[in-house]
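Risk register update: the risk of archive-format incompatibility is retired. Evidence:
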Amino acid sequence: MNFLKVFLFLISTINITLCQSHKIDDIYSQNLLREDFNLENKIFPTEQNENQFAVILKKEGQYFIGAKESSFNIILNWENDIIDYEIKTAITLSPEEKINLFNNEKTQEFGIIIQYNPNTQEGLILETNSAKKYRLIYMKNGYDKNLTFSSSNDNGWVKSNNLRKNEKNEFLIKSKEGNYEFFINGQFEFTINLNKKNINLLSSGRYGFNIGTQTKAKIDYVYISTIENYNGINKQIKLTNEESKKLIFENERLEKKLKSNESIKINKLNNVIQLLELELKNIKILNDSLKIENSKFEPFKDIMTENTDFLYTLSKNLKDEIQKNRLLKSEKNMLLDSIQTLIDNQEVFKLEYLNTLINIEQEDTID
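Archived output:
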């Protein structure tokens, strides 16, 4: 029994020592993510079903999340490439006496997930609950390890006077080379070195939240920043006043050009529309003319309807007429040939007769 008291005293002493010293002096002045939830965004997922919800309340500027029968994780859609950083957020758990929606019989639990690797399911979770307690959990491949402890041996939960019940609580987490420092409502709470816990340096991973069962929470903001000389994928451009003015001027110029181009396009479209309208008008006139012409053939339509052999009969009669005409032409040609023969014979006869007369006259003259 005495040994247990000594052991608990040593643990308590170590915990107090951890809470009283912090060594990360770096200033994380370069903002990478600043979200105040005034607009919809793709970084913070939204969903709603019977068991859980996550919605952005734009009017209130809050991210409202909750779970009923089972806890769930929300992982931000934000690619992270830093391991030295600080993350700030403000969380308000719903007052338990007003949380009739879930009929709470247990404390609400909410966690901030940092440097989570989806492939190995490795990362850290700083959890807090409605009983003014917190704990730090290291997770990997479904296994959870408590990194905090207290003399009450409450499954890693540590009571903190810095936590406020039924009020907003602000959290600041600093990270550098495997060292972590945790602040609650502006007060330093504790620090931890993963190497001393036989945990390898975590990869950059992802950020997110863990919502316990029968829990509702509102998040006011999420800010992530890193060292000044960071030059990674999330670097934000900082401009001088002169550069900002140039960008504004260029933006206004492009807007005017865009409006001018749009005006030209609209005029061209109007011209095309007018041409199409004129073409449609001409087509209508042509259709009306065709209707008039078609009406002239209406009588033939009745004939065709009454006598299905009309076309055949008409074609046959036409053929017969053509053949008759050809025959008449042939007979006419034969007759013309006969007449020409008679004319030729008559001419020959005349010549012979004249020759005979001339001969007779010549004989009379000699005598």
